Amino acid sequence: DAGVIQSPRHEVTEMGQEVTLRCKPISGHDYLFWYRQTMMRGLELLIYFNNNVPIDDSGMPEDRFSAKMPNASFSTLKIQPSEPRDSAVYFCASYKGEGANEQFFGPGTRLTVL
Amino acid sequence: GQNIDQPTEMTATEGAIVQINCTYQTSGFNGLFWYQQHAGEAPTFLSYNVLDGLEEKGRFSSFLSRSKGYSYLLLKELQMKDSASYLCAVNNDYKLSFGAGTTVTVRA
What we know:
A: mainly beta; four-stranded antiparallel beta sheet; 11 strands; B: five-stranded antiparallel beta sheet
């Protein structure tokens, strides 16, 4: 298995631009999570999906952030418009479900907003 | 709310033992994870404790006391490759709340 796949690995954009981050979870995993990691705030959960349905988006910082999961093998996290304070590493993780322990993290997307 | 505390940094010598403590006060609790994260990489799973007690997995062991809101990760026979950040995370209905992480530096 290829593990969780994220793209792009690095993104540099200017303030005000739209940014779309992509994630392909591990096949057969029912849960998908989006996290953000910064030096100041550490690793924070933004939103998670179960069977493609958003379950909890209480960690999404503002209306500028949105996430979708149109099918079991693809999810996007969009920021529109982006701001410098959105600069962070964004991780996607997937989890198989009941009986399993581990959330598997993707390699992350390092976002820099100038 | 969630309050998860762990030391910021620890330094130890190759071959030694280091214990990383984690205390938590959270609104819900299903279990506690320990993850390892090398600089510039994704977190990788080390252990998951649901019940009180010690779980051993090779050189790494993890302990949980739910009544005290306390866990520790024990790293034995330290190797240079163990230099990394170690994150404890409380699981509450699939939502993980992470501590700030403990940076462990292993010196020769």
